[in-house]
Amino acid sequence: MRARAGVDSPAGSLARALAEGLERHGIKSQISECEGIALVGIWAVGLAVWCEWGPYGWRFRWCLHQTSKQGTWNYTSCPCSAMETAVRRVAGFCQERYERMYGTVPRVADEASS
């Protein structure tokens, strides 16, 4: 599902490309964009990946949901220019998180039909 407001933005285009890459890994997501920021929500594992402009260009960012010793959140990021790397990292993180949450490996649609 895609919730869109207004005109296509670079963030929205990049978020859609990430979502399409994740879909090839069997990961369903929802895209929301507004005011030049886009979010790819992977709600099956409670993960939000956002696309934002920063000092080094466009990047995807997501929270690892692990607190440091100081009680702060730890985030990681990947440049949008490395789309396949971003897809691979987010897909791997989703799989690890799914296994922690549900105790099983997620089934990809193609695997279910074989």
TrEMBL record:
It comes from Nonomuraea helvata. This is Uncharacterized protein.
